[in-house]
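Hi support team,

I've been running sequence recovery on a batch of backbones for a student project. Most finish fine, but this one hangs at about 90% for roughly twenty minutes before it completes. I'm not sure whether the input is malformed or the queue is just slow. I've pasted the structure tokens below so you can try to reproduce it. Let me know if you need the job ID as well.

Thanks,
M.K.
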């Protein structure tokens, strides 16, 4: 009997599904305190030059992305062995990133379970229409989709809608613990903002934190977008959908310069993460390097990833992404 390829590949990655308390603690210490220090320096620099403030804010935004990666690992119970430790750190980092731990954990779990499945789109992912769906839509539906997929909307308004507005509400049918966690996160955000307004003033708060929030959120959406939106990605209907193909063929290896790879917590090894979400971010590269099966995954670079901006519709017939002009 032929071995199940899903089980075979997952067994190869299984040794990396282990967290190291020391490495996780080091990541918290080399991410959260530097973020706070850069925030404070950005505030102090307001008396010198706002250009200096913006430069420090860019650096702080990088650490804000890393904080979200820690939050993300906690949502998968990957940062610590102890479940409660993941929930506690996840909730605290969720306050810093304006994202409720349990609510995001729920939608993201659905994303992992349904990624690239054409029959189960719509929760925790970027909205994608097929060519046929688009051509059969009304004028207003096509216009709404075009606006949604427009980079100015997705990366310009998207961060404010998703992180400031969307994350403030519970989904319909949310369980008690999830609803309480959202209320706790919202309360924590209000308390933190109120404290900062009292300490530095609301004007200084906006001048410092707005660029940090926008840059980190927009880049976070970009990372999520680009790692599934490439020309020859994988999409199938439920009856033909395969979990391993969705992970290996439907997620890219975003090969970034070392500094950006560190800032983004190795999430560029997205194929490894989708195959095995329990692998902590600090083992993703090692899992990629030591698993020969991953050598065939689609590799994109900073330059080639920009092509993703023109991919708007999934062509089921030719199994590739196309732009609006191509139809």
């Amino acid at each position: 009997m032929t071995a199940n390829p899903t089980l075979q590949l997952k067994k190869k990655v299984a040794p990396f599904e282990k967290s190291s308390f020391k490495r996780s603690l080091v990541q918290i210490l080399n991410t959260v305190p530097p973020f706070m220090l850069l925030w404070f320096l950005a505030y102090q620099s307001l008396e010198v030059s706002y250009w200096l403030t913006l430069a420090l804010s860019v650096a702080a935004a990088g650490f804000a992305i890393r904080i979200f990666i820690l939050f993300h690992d906690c949502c998968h119970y990957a940062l610590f062995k102890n479940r409660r430790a993941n929930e506690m750190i996840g909730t605290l980092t969720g306050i810093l990133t304006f994202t409720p731990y349990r609510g995001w954990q729920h939608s993201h779990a659905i994303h992992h379970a349904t990624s690239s499945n054409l029959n189960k789109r719509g929760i925790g992912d970027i909205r994608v229409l097929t060519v046929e769906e688009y051509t059969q839509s009304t004028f207003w539906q096509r216009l709404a989709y075009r606006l949604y997929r427009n980079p100015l909307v997705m990366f310009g308004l998207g961060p404010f809608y998703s992180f400031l507005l969307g994350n403030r509400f519970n989904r319909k049918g949310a369980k008690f613990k999830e609803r309480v966690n959202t209320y706790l996160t919202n309360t924590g955000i209000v308390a933190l903002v109120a404290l900062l307004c009292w300490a530095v003033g609301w004007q200084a708060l906006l001048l410092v934190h707005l660029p940090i929030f926008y840059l980190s959120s927009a880049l976070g959406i970009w990372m999520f977008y680009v790692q599934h939106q490439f020309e020859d990605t994988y999409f199938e209907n439920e009856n033909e959908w395969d979990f391993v193909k969705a992970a290996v063929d439907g997620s890219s290896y975003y090969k970034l310069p070392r500094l950006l790879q560190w800032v983004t917590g190795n999430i560029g090894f997205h194929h490894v993460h989708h195959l095995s979400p329990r692998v902590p971010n600090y083992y993703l590269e090692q899992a990629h390097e030591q698993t020969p099966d991953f050598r065939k995954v689609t590799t994109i670079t900073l330059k080639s990833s920009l092509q993703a901006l023109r991919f708007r519709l999934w062509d089921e017939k030719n199994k590739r992404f196309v732009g609006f002009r191509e139809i």
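--
Follow-up from support: It reproduced on our side and the slowdown came from queue contention, not your input. Residues 50-75 form the longest helix (26 residues). No action needed from you.
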